[in-house]
């Protein structure tokens, strides 16, 4: 095979791969932007706000993990996936103080076993609302994580596209330098050895 032909095929393949990587990067950037905007707008509509630092230190003084997860967001509004995850953890810790550690199924079963106990019925409602809000916050966290992954994948895609741009440029430069009669591999174009 002619060396120029092989170089043209490889250079064209590199150029096609570069275009594919740029398109992938653009789509990943769009996915990141869309996901983050959706998570932010949905969370902002709920007006969920962390308690002030002094309240967090008072209510969650029993564990260092509670303070370390929640305290960095003291007084802030929940607007991104990371904050949603921290607030979901706060809800989990608050529900843990309820009877049966706030597990909805257990509270509901106890309430059905004692239908006249209004306190249990109220706790079932609290547990249901807490569990539902926690689930929705964790879903926002999951989508926020998908957005972050898309962001880093877009950066990687753009970097690889740049590498392919350089390699394609080197391929075009090499095509100009190769003689038209050169063969690949070189052994095919070598003259027969003198006897």
Q: Specify Rg, calculated over alpha carbons.
A: 30 Å
DSSP strand (E) fraction?
under 5%
Helix content: over 70%
Task: Decide which structural class fits the backbone.
Answer: mainly alpha
Order of helices and strands: HHHHHH
Account of the 3D structure:
The chain contains six helices and no strands. It has 195 residues and is mainly alpha-helical. The chain has one domain. Helix 1 (3-46) packs antiparallel against helix 6. The longest helix is centred in the last third of the chain and has 60 residues, at 118-177. The radius of gyration is 30 Å and the shape is elongated.
Task: Please give a handful of descriptors for the protein shown.
195 residues, mainly alpha, 6 helices, 0% strand, elongated
Give the SSE layout.
Blueprint: H1 3-46, H2 53-59, H3 64-70, H4 81-96, H5 104-113, H6 118-177
Helix pairs in contact: 1-6, 4-6, 5-6
Question: Quick recap of the structure?
Answer:
It contains 6 helices and no strands. By secondary structure, the protein is mainly α. It has one domain (3-186).
């Amino acid at each position: 095979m002619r060396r120029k032909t092989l170089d043209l095929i490889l250079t064209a393949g590199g150029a096609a791969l570069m275009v594919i990587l740029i398109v992938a990067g653009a789509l990943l950037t769009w996915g990141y932007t869309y996901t983050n905007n959706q998570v932010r707008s949905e969370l902002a509509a709920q007006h969920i706000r962390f308690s002030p630092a002094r309240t967090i230190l008072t209510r969650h003084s029993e564990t260092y993990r509670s303070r370390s997860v929640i305290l960095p967001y003291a007084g802030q509004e929940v607007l991104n996936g990371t904050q949603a995850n921290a607030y979901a953890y706060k809800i989990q810790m608050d529900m843990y103080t309820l009877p049966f550690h706030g597990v909805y199924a257990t509270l509901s079963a106890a309430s059905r076993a004692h239908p006249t106990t209004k306190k249990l019925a109220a706790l079932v409602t609290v547990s249901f609302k807490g569990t539902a809000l926690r689930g929705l916050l964790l879903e926002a966290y999951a989508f926020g994580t998908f957005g972050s992954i898309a962001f880093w994948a877009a950066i990687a895609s753009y970097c690889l596209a740049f590498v392919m741009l350089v390699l394609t440029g080197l391929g075009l430069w090499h095509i100009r330098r190769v003689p038209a009669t050169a063969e690949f591999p070189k052994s095919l174009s070598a003259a027969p050895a003198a006897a």
